[in-house]
Amino acid sequence: MAETENEDWTALLARVHQNRDRAAFAALFRHFAPRVKGFLMKSGAGATLAEECTQDVMATLWQKAHLFDPTRASVSTWIFTIARNRKIDALRRQRRPEPEDLPWGPESEPDQADALALQQDSEKLARAIADLPEKQKLLIKRAYFGDLTHSEIAEETGLPLGTIKSRIRLALERLRHAMN
Amino acid sequence: MNEIKHHLTDALLMAYATANLPEAFSVVIATHISLCDECRARLGSYEAVGGALLEDCEAVDVDAAALTATLARIESANAGSEPKVARKLGAVFPTPLQSYVGGDLETVRWRAVGGGVKQAVLKTSSDATVRLLSIPAGAAMPDHGHRGTELTLVLKGAFRDEDERFARGDIEIADEDMHHTPTAEAGGDCICLAATDAPLKFRGLIPRLAQPFIGI
C-alpha cells in the first residue's frame, strides 16, 4: 500500500476496530510507529525506551480503536495523545489524569460529513503551522516536545484554533442531543 | 449539564495538552474538562496541534521485528478492548477524580482543619498539591495569598468571591497577586478541588499558626 498524504487513516482504524484487521493495523504501524518513536526521542527518551514505548503506543491503538471518534480528532491527533500519555508515564513516572470518557457509545456511526470536515480543518491547521515564522514554530515545538514549564507557555500561539475548536464543540453538542 | 461560566485559560489548556503541568494541576483540569464541553473542545484544538507536529515529526526507524512484536503483545493481552470509563448516574466526582480518591464523595477520608472546614489531600507527585475542601454553608475560607498559581474547582454547592459566583464545574484561577476570600453560599456545604503549586500563606494570626499543623 502506497503511503501518500491522502491515506485514509480513519478508514484503516475503523477496520482495526470492526474487523480486527491486521493488514490495516500494519499500514497504520508503518506510518505512525517511526513518527511516535521520533516524537519520544525528541522528548528525551533514549532509543531503547522509545522503541519499547512506541510498541506500547501502537498496541494501545489496537486496544482502544473502539474509542476513537473521527468527528472530534484526526488519527494523528489521537495517536499524539496516546504517545504523550505514555511519555509522562515512562519519562516522568507520573500518572496522567485524563478527562472521563463521554457516556455515549462510539458504537453509533460517526457522521461522515462531520468527520470529513474535521479532517479538512486538521489539514488546514497543519499548513498554518508550516507557515508560521521559524521562531514561533520553534517555541510551539518546544512546548509540545516538552521542555517548557507551564508559566513559559504563551497564551497566544498565532494559530487559527477557533475553527477546529468550534467543529469539535459542535460534534459534542450533537452527541449530547442524540443522547437526550 | 449545567451552565459553566468560569473556564480554564488558554495557557493552562495548552500546558495540559503538552504535558507541561504538575500532576496535581492535571487532576483539577481533567476533572473540569469532564464537566465542561467548551474546555473539552478547546483542549481538542490544542491536541490537534500535537497531531500535526507528530505527523511532521522526523521518523526514526523502529526495530525490524517491531510490528511482529507489537502484534504478539496485542495477542498476549488477549486483544481485549479496554472498557470505557464513564461516571455512574448521580455521582458527584468525575472519574479522573474518583480514581485518585478511590471512589465518590462518600469515600473521602476528611480531616478537620478548624472552623468547620475539612480537607483531604490527594496523593500526587510532589511538585504541587491538590486537595478536596469542604466548606460549611456560609463560612469563609481563611484569607490567604500564595506564591504561585491556585486552581479551585467547585464540585458541589457554590461559593462567592468578590462579585463572582462559582458553582459546580466553575473554576477559579488565582495568581500570586490576588488575595481572595471564597465564601460558601448558604444552603449547603461547598465541596471544592483545589491545587496549589506553592504552600498557601495565610494572613491573620490564627490561620498562620495553624498552617504547620494542617499542612496547607
What keyword list fits this structure?
heterodimer; A: 180 residues; mainly alpha; 7 helices; 0% strand; globular; disordered N terminus; B: alpha+beta; 6 helices; 11 strands; elongated
What does this structure look like?
The complex is a heterodimer of chains A (180) and B (216). In chain A, helix 2 packs across helix 4. Chain A is 64% helix and 0% strand. Chain A contains seven helices and no strands. Chain A is an all-alpha fold and 180 residues long. The longest helix of chain A has 21 residues, at 22-42. Chain B has 216 residues and is α+β, with helices and mostly antiparallel strands. Chain B has helices at 10-17, 23-35, 37-56, 66-76, 95-101, 205-214, and strands at 111-112, 118-122, 129-135, 144-146, 150-156, 158-161, 164-167, 171-174, 183-184, 190-196, 200-202. Chain B has a six-stranded antiparallel beta sheet with strand order 1-2-3-10-5-8, covered by helices on one side. The longest helix of chain B is centred in the first third of the chain and has 20 residues, at 37-56. Chain B is elongated, with a radius of gyration of 20 Å.
